[in-house]
Design a protein that fits this description.
Layout: E1 13-14, E2 19-23, E3 32-35, E4 42-43, E5 47-52, E6 55-64, E7 79-80, H1 88-101, H2 105-112, E8 125-130, H3 141-149, H4 158-165, H5 169-177, E9 181-186, H6 206-220, E10 225-231, H7 237-250, E11 254-258, H8 265-276, E12 281-283, H9 289-301, E13 306-309, E14 321-327, E15 335-336, E16 342-343, H10 344-354, E17 358-363, H11 368-375, E18 380-384, E19 395-400, H12 414-425, E20 429-433, E21 442-445, E22 462-464, E23 469-471, E24 478-480, E25 494-497, H13 501-511, E26 517-520, H14 528-539, E27 545-548, E28 561-566, H15 580-592, E29 603-608, H16 614-621, H17 624-638, E30 644-653, H18 656-668, E31 676-689, E32 692-702, H19 707-716, E33 725-730
Parallel strand pairs: 10-17, 10-18, 11-13, 11-14, 12-13, 14-17, 19-29, 20-27, 20-28, 26-27, 28-29
Antiparallel strand pairs: 1-4, 2-3, 2-6, 5-6, 5-7, 8-9, 15-16, 21-25, 22-23, 23-24, 30-32, 30-33, 31-32
Helix pairs in contact: 1-2, 1-10, 3-4, 4-5, 6-7, 15-16
Length: 736
C-alpha cells in the first residue's frame, strides 16, 4: 500500500459569485456545484449550509466548482457554519479512503461529520446558585440539603443539583420560584485538562529506555515514520509508547491512541492518568451523544490534545495530529465490516503519511502484513523480548483431549480441573478462556432432532440460560426458551449441545464449591463502568476464577492470576478462513500472556483435539518465528496477502432469486487474464443475514495489480437490479 503525498494548497478562498464544489455527507457520486452569494465568503474546508431538493443540508467546501451545472440552475449556499474548517489533511484523507475502498467520498465525509450538531457552537448552560439576598422561606430537610450542596459556591444545573442533594427536581424548582436560587449561565464548552508531558514516569529497563528513545526520535523528526513496537506480554509496551506521547505533547501536537476494544480501556485509562496527571478524551460508541459532541468540537478546536478511541476516532477533525498509536495492531476489531469497509490500522498509516506524522503499531503478536513490512525495511522494528521486572513468561502445556478426555457432560479435562482446583486452594486466580457466549451454541430436540435456528440468519440460536432466552448473535433476534419442541410438541426433550461460558461456570461451581467466579463476555461487560468493576474485583482478589471470551484475552495485568486454561483451543481453526491459523495463534498467545505477570510464575493449559497442529506446536515450543515463517511460506506460495491482493464482493438483497442472478452476472463479467483469479459466485457462509440473502465473489490478483481500477471496470460493465446491493471489501478479513 503506497501513499502519495498531496501537493494541494492548504486552503483556497472564494468570494461572492464564484462557483464552488460542496461535498455532502451522503453516498453520492461526487461534490455538487453551488454559488457563493453576496455577503458570504468561504474557503476550502468550511462547513456550509446548502439547499438539496426541498431541504437544506450541511456539507464541506471541497474546492472549485466543476462547471457541469448550467448557470441558470445553480443554487446558492445558504450560510457558512460557525465551526473550525475541516482540516486539509482530513479532506485529503477522505479522498484517499474513498478511492482505496471504492466508496463515495460523501460516505467517508459522513464518518467525519458523525455528530452534526457539533458543527454549531454549544449554547450556554443554565445553572443555579444561591441568591444574593435570599428571601425568608419555609425550610425543609430537602431544601436544606439543596442549599448545603451549593454552599461551596459552585453553580450547578438543576438535575445535577437535585441528584447531589438526594431530592426531586420539584424541590429545586420550588426554591428557584421562591427566589432562594438565582439562575446563571455557564460556558457550554467542556474543559479538557491538558496532560502533563513533564510528569515523571516509571523507571524503564535499558531495553525499554532504548525503544522509548527511538520512538521519541520519530516524533522529533516531524515527518512520516512507521514503527513496529513488538514485545511479549508484560514487557511494558504501553509505558514505552507513553514516552512518545510525552514527546508529542511537549511539541504541542495532538495524539490519537486506537484501542481495538473499549474493554481494554479500563486499566489503560488509569495508567494514562497516573502517567500524565489528566485523563485523555475518549471516543467510542458507548459515550453519550453530548460527550461525543463536546469531544468532536474540542478536537476540531485543538482543545483535546490526546484522544483514545475505537477505529472511528481516526476520522475526527484533528488540526495537528503528530502521533498515532495503534495498540494491538493485529486485532480484527480494527476492520470495519459495514458501510465504508476499511482497516483502521492501515488507514492510520495513511493518515500519518498525509499529515507528516509518526505512527507506532504495537503488538505482542504482530500481523504477518506488518511483520513483512518491517522485514522489508518499510517499518522500523523495535523488540522487547522479555517481561519487565524479572517476571517470566508462563509455561505452556498442551492437553491432548483425545487422551485426557473429560467425564461425560463435562468440558474440563482431568489435568485442567486439577490445576484449577489447586490454584484456587493456594489463594491464586485463574482465567478460563472459551470464545463462546451464552450457555450452549445449539439447542435441539432429542425426540425429533429439531434445531432452533434464527429465521433471519443462517445461524443457530444460542441459549442464554441466565436470561432465559435463545438468541442470534448476528441480528439480535431472540425468543424465550420454550418448554416444548415447536415441531413435535415433546416436553422436557430439549437439550443443550456444546459449552458456552455460562455452562462452563456451572461446571466450575460443581468442581469447586464456594468458588468466587464471574463471567466476562460482551453480554455483561456492556459499558466502561462494567469493565472497571470487573478489573476492581480481580485486582482486590474478590474473585478466584474469571471465565471469559476473547474480550478478556488481552490488555489486562492481574498480578495474582497464575493459571490460564483454554477450554477449546481449536475453536478458531475451524472453517476455511485465510487467517484462521494466524488469528488462533494470536488469541491463544495473548490469553496465555495474562498468566504469571506478577511475582508468582504462570501456567497455561491448552485443551486441544489437534495437538499436532502447527499452531499448537508453535505455542507449546514458544517459537513464534517458526510459526510466522511457515505462515509466510504458505501465503507466498498461494499468492495470498501480503503477497497478493484480494477484493471481496458481497451481493445481498431480500429477493433470493435476484441476488442469485446478480451474482451470476458479476461472475460472467469478472476480470480475465493471467493476473486474476475469480472465485465464486457462491452462497456466503452466512447465506442469510439479518433477513438478506447473500452471495460472495472473491477476486484474487497479483501484488502489482491496481485492483481498484480492475473492480471499477468490472462493475461498470455489469448491471443488476436496484433492489440488490453490491458491497465491496478491499483487503477482506472475514469471509462470512
Amino acid at each position: 500500500m503506497t501513499v502519495a503525498r498531496s501537493t494541494e494548497p492548504e486552503a483556497v478562498a472564494f468570494s461572492a459569485g464564484e462557483r464552488i464544489a460542496v461535498l455532502l455527507p451522503l453516498p453520492l457520486s461526487g461534490a455538487y456545484d453551488y454559488r457563493v452569494p453576496d455577503g458570504i465568503s468561504v474557503k476550502t474546508g468550511d462547513f456550509v449550509v446548502v439547499p438539496l431538493g426541498n431541504r437544506t443540508i450541511e456539507g464541506v467546501v471541497w474546492g472549485l466548482g466543476t462547471g457541469e451545472v448550467d448557470e441558470a440552475k445553480l443554487k446558492e449556499i445558504t450560510d457558512r457554519v460557525d465551526c473550525p474548517p475541516l482540516p486539509p489533511e482530513s479532506q485529503r484523507f477522505a479522498g484517499w479512503v474513498s478511492a482505496y475502498t471504492l466508496q463515495s467520498a460523501g460516505a467517508v465525509l459522513k464518518m467525519m461529520m458523525s455528530v452534526p450538531d457539533a458543527l454549531h457552537p454549544p449554547k450556554p448552560l443554565s445553572a443555579l446558585t444561591v441568591a444574593t439576598l435570599p428571601p425568608d422561606i419555609r425550610m425543609t430537610d430537602a431544601r436544606k440539603r439543596v442549599l448545603d450542596v451549593l454552599a461551596d459556591g459552585l453553580p450547578r444545573q438543576a438535575t445535577e443539583l437535585a441528584r447531589e442533594a438526594g431530592t426531586g427536581p420539584g424541590v429545586v424548582k420550588g426554591l428557584a420560584d421562591a427566589g432562594a436560587l438565582r439562575r446563571v449561565e455557564l460556558p457550554a464548552a467542556v474543559d479538557f485538562p491538558a496532560p502533563d508531558p513533564d510528569r515523571p514516569g516509571p523507571d524503564l529497563s535499558p531495553e525499554q529506555a532504548g525503544a522509548a528513545e527511538e520512538l521519541r526520535d520519530s516524533v522529533r523528526a516531524d515527518r512520516f515514520h512507521v514503527t513496529l513496537l513488538d514485545g511479549v506480554p508484560g514487557s511494558g509496551k504501553t509505558e514505552v509508547y507513553f514516552e512518545a506521547v510525552a514527546e508529542a505533547l511537549s511539541r504541542g501536537k495532538q495524539i490519537l491512541v486506537l484501542l481495538p476494544e473499549i474493554a481494554l480501556g479500563a486499566q489503560w485509562l488509569s495508567r494514562f492518568e497516573n502517567r500524565f496527571g489528566a485523563p485523555p478524551a475518549e471516543w467510542h460508541s458507548d459515550l453519550t451523544h453530548a460527550t461525543r459532541r463536546n469531544t468532536w468540537r474540542a478536537v476540531a478546536e485543538g482543545r483535546a490534545q490526546v484522544v483514545v478511541g475505537a477505529r472511528s476516532a481516526l476520522f475526527l477533525p484533528f488540526r495537528d495530529l503528530g502521533l498515532i498509536i495503534v495498540d494491538e495492531e493485529h486485532e480484527n476489531a480494527f476492520k470495519q465490516e459495514e458501510g465504508v469497509i476499511y482497516n483502521a490500522r492501515d488507514m492510520a498509516v495513511v493518515r500519518s503519511r498525509i499529515g507528516d506524522g509518526a505512527v507506532a503499531l504495537v503488538s505482542a503478536t504482530p500481523s504477518l502484513e506488518t511483520v513483512v513490512n518491517a522485514e522489508n525495511g518499510r517499518y522500523r522494528h523495535l523488540e522487547l523480548p522479555a517481561r519487565h521486572g524479572g517476571a517470566q513468561l508462563p509455561e505452556i502445556r498442551l492437553i491432548d483431549m483425545l487422551v485426557d478426555q473429560p467425564p461425560r457432560g463435562r468440558w474440563l479435562s482431568p489435568p485442567l480441573a486439577a490445576e484449577l482446583t489447586e490454584t484456587v486452594a493456594k489463594g491464586e486466580q485463574a482465567l478460563l478462556y472459551l470464545n463462546r457466549r451464552g450457555y450452549a451454541p445449539l439447542t435441539l430436540c432429542r425426540k425429533c432432532g429439531y434445531r432452533f435456528r434464527c429465521p433471519r440468519c443462517t445461524a443457530w440460536l444460542v441459549e442464554h440460560r441466565l436470561a432465559g432466552t435463545l438468541q442470534c448473535h448476528h441480528c439480535g433476534f431472540r425468543i424465550d426458551t420454550p418448554e416444548t419442541c415447536p415441531d413435535c410438541g415433546a416436553v422436557d426433550d430439549l437439550t443443550a449441545c456444546g459449552p458456552g461460558v455460562e455452562r462452563l461456570a456451572e461446571e466450575v461451581r460443581v468442581l469447586i464449591p464456594g468458588v468466587r467466579l464471574t463471567i466476562a463476555a460482551s453480554d455483561n461487560l456492556t459499558s466502561p463502568n462494567a469493565v472497571r468493576e470487573l478489573v476492581s474485583q480481580v485486582e482486590n482478589h474478590e474473585l478466584d476464577v474469571v471465565i471469559g471470551t476473547q474480550i478478556v484475552a488481552k490488555g489486562y495485568h492481574f498480578p495474582l492470576l497464575t493459571l490460564v486454561g483454554a477450554v477449546d483451543a481449536d475453536l478458531g481453526l475451524q472453517g476455511g478462513d485465510l487467517r484462521a491459523a494466524e488469528r488462533t495463534y494470536q488469541l491463544l498467545y495473548q490469553v496465555s500472556g495474562r498468566a504469571g505477570r506478577g511475582e508468582k510464575p504462570g501456567r497455561v493449559l491448552l485443551q486441544s483435539y489437534m495437538a499436532t497442529h502447527p499452531v499448537m506446536a508453535a505455542l507449546a515450543a514458544g517459537d513464534r518465528k517458526r510459526f510466522l515463517a511457515a505462515e509466510r511460506e504458505a501465503r507466498a506460495e498461494a499468492g495470498m496477502p501480503p503477497f497478493g491482493r484480494l477484493v471481496g464482493l458481497i451481493v445481498s438483497g431480500k429477493d433470493e432469486r435476484a441476488v442469485e442472478e446478480a451474482s451470476l452476472a458479476l461472475g460472467r463479467t469478472a476480470p480475465q487474464g493471467d493476473e486474476f483469479v475469480t472465485l465464486g459466485p457462491a452462497p456466503a457462509a452466512f447465506a442469510l443475514l439479518r433477513g438478506r440473502y447473500r452471495h460472495r465473489l472473491l477476486l484474487k490478483a497479483a501484488k502489482t495489480v491496481n485492483v481498484q481500477q480492475a473492480v471499477r471496470q468490472w462493475l461498470a460493465r455489469t448491471s443488476w437490479p436496484k433492489k440488490v446491493r453490491v458491497q465491496i471489501d478491499v483487503d477482506p478479513y472475514s469471509f462470512f
